[in-house]
Specification:
The complex is a heterodimer of chains A (254) and B (206). Chain A has 254 residues and is an alpha/beta fold. In chain A, 37% of the residues lie in helices and 29% in strands. Chain B is built from 6 helices and 13 strands. The chains are: A alpha/beta (254), B alpha/beta (206).
């Protein structure tokens, strides 16, 4: 008996709709969020992630409403984030029905936010999101503001510091691999997973069950985030899980 | 059918309420003793620290109400911290007496160097049958988020075990009082089935 590796469908939300991009750009509409969330739950998803990529105040309200509607009909853990800048923002998402909250740009600007949020709600519900791009072999740089702004921070060092401050989990996205469906950045994932004492969710690049298998074994990730692969109907959580289970990965049967 | 969801000001009770609604019953948020005693079936949820929970229950007179409720043989389900509160005592935040329905203690999980809190999907091995696990196979995965575990004195009170560094009681039961360390309201289809099994006892007084 051991903790199961998790498959986490991720829904990027803009103005209440699911969208998906390539390398953080070229967004396309991928459908209705509540309908997709219910479908992934039924397929055996272990958790769902909702990231608000809307900038406007009005969009924020739409996102909170959406989260409430999802939480009414989904009975697995829900992680939400996007634009969380304060302990109050985190509380707003938790009250709307999220079980965990991701923090990204604001934590780079002011790392103490992780300690404050963790003290207020418990480390198990504070997830640090890192967007990173490869700079040279074995070195990745942290980007903020939706992957547009390089911050001169080393991704592995930032992950270690964040975990010591109170991040209970790291959601690690490779900007290079995102949306390309050509496989996760195994080097980045493994470098972070081997350096922090908290679970790492690998994100960016899932194009097949083999990619997921690799990131959960060679990449040492605890969980894999999935978007394009599922949204466009190429496969289902159930199919992916049967491949992983057959390969001996501890997986929750569904 | 109405279900008392006991609210002692600690932790998120909304997910439990939503799951109860989804299963066709009506959650009644019970923050005072009469709201508990007026119902035939109750859920004691909760996240946070043991001593904090006991303080919250006592401050509202809910500790006496819950003891009385259970003494009448009405079905009660404690979830996570609510399960731990059923024990004789706990040592999170200083040693403190619990509700005393299940003899035993609550102490920090001996995770053998593994990360705490124990957060995620883990499997539960059922040691014996129970009304709540009808139709659910042994070794089913449920969702956990906790650092402390209960240690019942009487092995017969243990219904299910989970392993995380050590084997601990993930599900307990004595008479019509049950406790689960995991969150059935966050455990997908099988979690809802367990809750539905519990709610089905509400229309069946013994």
């Amino acid at each position: 008996m051991t903790l199961a590796r998790r498959l986490i469908p991720c829904l990027d939300i803009r103005e209440g709709r699911v969208v998906k991009g390539v390398g953080f750009r070229a967004l396309v509409d991928a459908g209705d969020a509540v309908r997709l969330a219910a479908a992934y739950d039924a397929q055996g998803a272990d958790e769902l992630a909702f990231l608000d990529i809307t900038a406007s105040t009005e969009g924020r309200r739409t996102f909170t409403d959406l989260l409430q509607r999802v939480a009414e009909q989904v009975f697995i853990p829900v992680t939400a984030g996007g634009g969380v800048g304060s302990v109050e923002d985190a509380g707003r998402l938790l009250r709307a029905g999220a079980d965990k909250v991701t923090v990204n740009t604001a934590a780079v600007d002011r790392p103490e936010l992780l300690a404050e949020a963790s003290l207020a709600y418990g480390a198990q519900c504070i997830v640090l999101a890192i967007d990173a791009a490869r700079r040279e072999p074995g070195r990745w740089e942290v980007f903020t503001h939706g992957g547009t702004r390089p911050r001169g921070l080393d991704a592995v060092e930032w992950a270690v510091k964040a975990a010591s401050l109170g991040a209970g989990e790291i959601l690690l996205t490779s900007i290079d691999a995102d949306g390309r469906q050509a496989g996760y950045d195994l080097g980045l994932t493994r470098a972070v997973a081997e350096s922090v004492p908290v679970p790492v969710i690998a994100s960016g690049g899932a194009g097949s069950a083999q990619h997921i298998l690799k990131v959960l074994t060679e990449g040492k990730a605890d969980a894999a985030l999935l978007a394009s692969l599922l949204h466009f109907g190429r496969t289902t959580v159930r199919e992916l899980k049967s491949v992983l289970a057959a390969a001996g990965v501890p997986i929750r049967a569904c | 059918m109405k279900v008392a969801v006991i609210d002692y000001g600690r932790g998120n009770i909304h997910s439990v309420c939503k799951a109860v609604t989804q299963l066709g019953a009506e959650p009644v948020i019970a923050a005072e003793p009469t709201a508990v005693s007026g119902q035939g079936i109750a859920i004691l949820p909760g996240t946070g620290a043991f001593s904090d929970a006991m303080t919250g229950l006592a401050a509202r007179g809910l500790d006496t109400a819950v003891r009385g409720f259970a003494a009448q043989g009405k079905p009660l389900l404690g979830i996570c911290l609510g399960m731990q509160a059923l024990m004789t005592q706990g040592d999170e935040g200083g040693t403190r007496a619990g509700l005393g329905w299940i003899p035993g203690t609550t102490r920090l999980l001996r995770a053998g160097g593994r990360k705490l809190p124990h957060t995620g999907w883990n499997s539960v091995e059922f040691l014996r049958g129970s009304d709540l696990t009808a139709g659910i196979p042994s070794q089913t995965y449920f969702y956990f988020a906790h650092s402390y575990a209960v240690v019942p004195e009487d092995g017969f009170d243990v219904i299910g075990l989970t392993c995380y560094g050590e084997r601990f009681a993930a599900m307990i039961g004595r008479g019509r009082i049950w406790g689960v360390q995991f969150h059935p309201e966050k455990s997908g289809r099988q979690g809802l089935r367990l809750l539905a099994n519990f709610l089905s006892l509400g229309g069946d007084p013994r």
